[in-house]
């Protein structure tokens, strides 16, 4: 038995309140090393009377990675106290007890149990229930639709699907979004994620000048208030992008620093190493060297805010509260969230919760994120680490099938179940090449990978225009103007996306909360079967990721499919094919 691989940690993703009075417990062991795990659990004050330490309960072998197996159990407690340990039987027949002080042979066991001393409901990780039912749609406001040409920035170009340059303007605005809300309703969208809309110098608006003003090229506060109300009337939630890691260099605070140096009242609002602030320009607008102050990446035009400064905290928390209380937004997406201190994010969470109890907070983090997802900071993160594994297998062909499954399972085991249910799954965005371009124009592959992703735990997000088959490489090419001419839209793809969203919403409880099971047969290594199970309900999908047609037996009604022919109970599935039943 590989005892070094056995791991558990109380009060973490391995032991947490899932619902009031319901604990979820996990245990990690080496892959294929353990035959059985039994849980001994109960109230520590009632062990003598209830003798729960003599009543083992079998744990379920759940998800596995290439290194580990994870065992799970659900425990209902009426006294809000829990002590527990694990009886582990190896495939070689060895038996041990594993508790708070390590591993012992069962016969010599020192019964030192793990403890959850008191299960406080206030400490339970709570995610807004509405998020699980949401299919998001990301809008880059400058390129979605131009509803009001009168507010176009000077020098705006004609609306076009041409590849934009980094500094181009085309006149997209909030009126354009308002004009097309019913199109989004038709598609099935019920959540809008806006890239920044606040006053800023650039077309992307990640260089904020004033967090308390709508950028004039997008509209005004009255228009935004109307847009939010119209969204809510249609059952659509609204999420704004908050750039609290840095300000734009055209902001009054940074301009004051440039003028007054160390004497500026805002000198400590930023991370400045030397006055006067300076840098050496790089080869393009975004890069610089020899900076005397901290910035986002190497961009001299985005000086980093000192969020440990109480004045900065007060200002940003005022911003967070203002847009919730005054305009009734439903969520914040936090840009460069991993580069802001945890101390600030904890205060931010408290302010948002006080303003709106069911508020959703989404952090932009591209890597494993346990530190931010303990219930006192974010609700979820942009789940790039999860969807990267999907893209690496389906689209880039860089990893084998079993490695993708291993990576997906590993990510799921990093977080509590209620966290996984609201993680934000993106296949492309304003920061990446569009999915169809990454798939080298293969629409069957695009549809296959979308179907696979929409069946995963978490909530899907569609990047504007993907439903019409828009293409584009990395930034800025992925930020083209949305094509509204029906003759230039892929309407067949649109209908597929619409059908996929309908499936996601119809089977949402299973897809949000159901167990996930995988099946890969040695005889068909390019065929992946996945099943989602919730109670006595089940959804199964099969994907042919290989280069040859495969034959399957099918007896259940088909919900959604691609590249298949069905004759009686036999299915012929072509490459890039899938079937959901």
From TrEMBL:
Ranges of residues in domain Glycosyl hydrolase family 13 catalytic: 138-504
Broad EC category: hydrolase
Source organism, top-level taxon: Bacteria
GO BP term (any one): carbohydrate metabolic process
Alphabetical list of InterPro entries matching this protein: GH (IPR017853), GH13_cat_dom (IPR006047), Glyco_hydro_13_lg-like_dom (IPR004185), Ig-like_fold (IPR013783), O16G_dom_2 (IPR045857)
GO molecular function terms attached to this record: hydrolase activity, hydrolyzing O-glycosyl compounds
EC code(s) of this entry: 3.2.1.-
Keyword vocabulary terms for this entry: Glycosidase, Hydrolase
One Pfam family recorded for the sequence: Alpha-amylase
Protein name: Maltogenic alpha-amylase
Naturally occurring in which organism (per UniProt): Latilactobacillus fuchuensis
């Amino acid at each position: 038995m590989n005892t070094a691989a056995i791991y558990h940690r109380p009060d973490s993703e391995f032991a947490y309140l899932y619902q009031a009075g319901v604990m979820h417990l996990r245990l990690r062991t080496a892959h294929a090393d353990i035959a059985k795990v039994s849980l001994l659990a109960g109230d520590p004050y009632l062990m003598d009377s209830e003798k729960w330490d003599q009543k083992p309960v079998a744990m379920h072998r759940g998800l596995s990675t290439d290194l580990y197996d994870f065992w799970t159990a659900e425990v209902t407690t009426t006294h809000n106290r829990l002590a527990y340990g694990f009886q582990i039987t190896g495939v070689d027949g060895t038996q041990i007890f594993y508790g708070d002080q390590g591993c012992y042979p069962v016969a010599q066991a020192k019964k030192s149990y793990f403890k959850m001393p008191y299960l406080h409901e206030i400490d339970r990780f709570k995610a807004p229930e509405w998020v699980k039912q949401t299919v998001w749609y990301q809008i880059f406001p400058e390129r979605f639709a131009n509803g009001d040409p009168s507010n176009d920035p000077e020098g705006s170009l004609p609306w076009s699907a041409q590849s934009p340059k980094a500094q181009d303007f085309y006149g997209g605005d909030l009126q354009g979004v308002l004009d097309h809300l019913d199109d989004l309703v038709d598609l099935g969208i019920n959540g809008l994620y806006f890239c920044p809309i606040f006053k800023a110098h650039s077309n992307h608006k990640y260089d904020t000048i004033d967090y308390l003003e709508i950028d004039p090229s997008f509209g005004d506060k009255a228009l935004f208030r109307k847009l939010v109300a119209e969204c809510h009337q249609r059952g659509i939630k609204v999420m704004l992008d908050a750039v609290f890691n840095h300000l734009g260099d055209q902001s009054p605070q940074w301009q004051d620093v440039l003028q007054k140096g160390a004497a500026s009242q805002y000198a400590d609002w930023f991370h400045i190493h030397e006055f006067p602030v300076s840098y050496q320009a790089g080869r393009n607008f975004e890069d610089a060297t020899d900076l005397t102050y901290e910035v986002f990446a190497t961009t001299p035009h985005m000086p980093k805010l000192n969020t440990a400064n109480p004045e900065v905290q007060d200002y940003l928390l005022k911003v967070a509260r203002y847009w919730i209380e005054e305009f009734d937004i439903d969520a914040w997406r936090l840009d460069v969230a991993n580069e802001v201190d945890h101390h600030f994010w904890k205060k931010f969470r408290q302010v948002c919760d006080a303003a709106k109890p069911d508020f959703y907070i989404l952090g932009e983090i591209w890597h494993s994120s346990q530190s931010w997802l303990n219930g006192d900071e974010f609700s979820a993160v942009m789940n790039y680490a999860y969807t990267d594994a999907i893209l690496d297998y389906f689209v880039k062909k860089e990893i084998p099938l079993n490695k993708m499954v291993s990576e997906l399972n590993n990510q799921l085991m990093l977080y509590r179940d209620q966290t996984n249910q609201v993680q934000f799954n993106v296949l492309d965005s304003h920061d990446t090449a569009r999915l169809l371009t990454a798939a080298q124009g293969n629409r069957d592959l695009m549809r296959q990978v979308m179907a696979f992703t929409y069946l995963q735990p978490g909530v899907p997000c569609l990047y504007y225009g993907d439903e019409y088959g828009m293409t584009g490489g990395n930034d800025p090419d992925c930020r083209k103007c949305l094509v509204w001419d029906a003759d230039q839209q892929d309407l067949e793809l649109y209908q597929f996306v619409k059908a996929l969203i309908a499936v996601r919403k119809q089977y949402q409880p299973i897809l949000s909360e159901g167990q996930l099971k995988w099946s890969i047969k040695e005889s068909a290594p390019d065929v992946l079967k996945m099943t989602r199970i919730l109670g006595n309900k089940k959804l199964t999908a099969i994907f042919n990721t290989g280069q040859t047609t495969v034959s399957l037996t099918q007896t259940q009604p088909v919900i959604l499919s691609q590249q298949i022919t069905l004759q009686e109970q036999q299915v012929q599935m072509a490459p890039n094919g899938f079937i959901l039943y």
